[in-house]
Amino acid sequence: MVDSQYILPNDVGISPLDCAEAFPLLSPKEKLYAHYLSRASWYGGLIVLLQTSPESPTIYVLLQRLFRKQPPSVLESVASAAGLSPEEYQAFLVYAAGIYSNMGNYKSFGDTKFIPNLPKEKLKALIWQSQAFKDSPTQMEALWNSCGDLMYSLDEKLKQLGLGDKGITTYFSGNCCLKDAELVQKFLDSKNLSAYNTRLFKQVNNDGKCCYEVRLASAIKDECPIDGDVDNKCGCYNFDGTLFKVVRGDYAPLMQRVVDCLKKAKAYAANENEEHMLEEYVQSFFFGSIEAHKQGSRYWIRDKGPIVESHIGFIESYRDPFGSRGEFEGFVAVVNKAMSARFAELVNSAEVLLPELPWPTQFEKDHFLKPDFTSLDVLTFAGSGIPVGISIPNYDCIRQSEGFKNVSLGNVLAVASATQKEKLTFLREEDKDLYIKLKNPSFEVQVGLHELLGHGSGKLFVEDEKGNFNFDSKNVRNPETGELVSSWYKGSETWDSKFSTIASTYEECRAECVGLYLCLNNRVLSIFGQEGSDAEDVVYINWLNMVRAGVLALEFYTPVNKTWRQAHMQARFVILRVLLEANEGLVSLEHTVGSDGKPDAIISLDRTKIRSVGKPAIERFLRKLQIHKSTADVEGGRALYEGYSSVTDSEPEKFLTLRETVLLRKEARKMFVQANTRVQGDTIELQEYAGSAADLIRSFVDRFHDDGEELEEEILALSQMDAHCWS
């Protein structure tokens, strides 16, 4: 029997991402704009296969060739003839859907590997009897031989993503470890070169000397200066006695496809900001320039209230084990005007709400830059997973002084927050009905506060290359110690480069704490239409949802190497620890036995003590988080955060024992089936699908109907070029 955390169950939730109401309301020009941005996103999203695991690209190509010849409904009879039971065939379809949803064979939320839940011999038999194999036996056998063993392997190192002996990653060659990552980050900082669009390959010469290749993602491979290339840092460097080579051309054919689609989208842009934004993104993806992407992001935040919203690039660094390299993602969405009005009101109240946060004014930005905050119905979200909210861009230099945008993905949130009572774990019976009723409304409040005033608050103290400070270094004191601030960010140092491995989860924790803290504010509750006793119920469910999430988070902890695999869930566990530490009966955790005779647990929250005990506990912790962040105090911040992140079996919580219970009763994360757009004469047609594994598979085959074979050859060539780096 395979541990259940490494398989996807046959009854996993699969839901269509509904855009049927929003898309038809677009004008013909807006539909064309959305279509070409979607195409750019889908082509770029395939890069994630190459960012996930050595075998992910080959598995993807194998599946595409299988289903292009025979859709799931036709392949079913082949599976039966090959000896697969209906349950085993469904397990294969769910596995394939998981590959498409996660853009690889590791879960986007948790970074754990998943394998097919059917015998390897039966899957091989299905492939061998397929039409794809009959038409191209040599190629299909080569694909299977390349990925079959790795597809099923659960060797300890391959169970999760990680660096060195802690897991597998393709952001770094297989011979890299944490020390290599730290040295290269110092080199990148010295050259004012961002890691966001890079991968690292370590080469060891015959004499034992190392050479590091920093490879930039770009459509162009030529490293010589070219017209229009104003940010070329390619070349050889000697740093700290070690040779470094900065080259470009990573993912080149896929990057070229992205560039081509963005150029087409520009013809249908609604205004100059969108035109300039796309010009800069084209420059960024063609030459491999993060500076151009930053400039494009500046135009993006100036584009207030567009009907069609989008963003694309190497954005989130959650899955880089070192926390500096961005995973490619692209989204296209249509504004939901009704919900956006609430978020706009929250933005307008921000300058009143920010002073409520528990740190001195010197630790807050000098001016709150009002962002665009909209609720969107997603048409396309390409990458490894779909969040419910986003606050971008992630570049500190822009967020701190120029602004940012917040988006809540309304049609994603509606599906993600839907809960069945019989599958609701770890709550008291008397809490379940209210939880189901108010999870979505309370989550809307939390997401709004998390994105706008969580990620949008707090100042970073910086000394630039010329010795200028953005704060009064002679008078600002640390409110925890009373002493003058003695540390800050210097030169090209950023939050990600400084706090590296804990930066993402630490920041998610800070934003979640802001949400908990400010959801107690009556003005906030009123903005979201919550008044009186209903408002108090929303507060209660928001806090209860957070403590329950802290329990569920244990699924994403690996005891063998004592690592967390998911930034948000680690953050929620830390908050649970903080609230348990507050004592006074605020939160209680009881190990029990369920009605099925198996281990269970009950988490409860005393709603009468949220304001009197919970709020002061979050206030103290949140202030410490912000002070360490503002002052670049890595040592203090790491000690605080890793202390609360520790998972032991000490009484009374016995978290390691509780983890086994969580794994026993866990529910698989939902998958989304997304629509496709297609040019039909002078119009754009929306092609929708139902919510099943077969439909999710069909959507991906249709998505690359016109150029699938050529595209797959490009993906295989990119994968094979670097295969030796992980062998």
TrEMBL record:
* Family recorded in the similarity comment: Belongs to the peptidase M49 family.
InterPro entries in alphabetical order: Dipeptidyl-peptase3, Peptidase_M49
- Protein's organism: Polypterus senegalus (Senegal bichir)
Is Zinc one of the keywords UniProt gives this record?
A: yes
Keyword annotations for this protein, in alphabetical order, are:
Aminopeptidase, Cytoplasm, Hydrolase, Metal-binding, Metalloprotease, Protease, Zinc
Give the catalysed reaction(s), semicolon-separated.
Answer: Release of an N-terminal dipeptide from a peptide comprising four or more residues, with broad specificity. Also acts on dipeptidyl 2-naphthylamides
Q: Which cofactor does it need?
A: Zn(2+)
For this UniProt entry, what is the primary localization, expressed as one broad class? cytoplasm
Q: Where's it found, cell-wise?
A: Cytoplasm
Task: Please tell me whether the keyword Hydrolase is annotated for this protein.
Answer: yes
Q: Pfam families annotated for this entry?
A: Peptidase_M49
Name of the molecule in the record: Dipeptidyl peptidase 3
EC number from the UniProt entry: 3.4.14.4
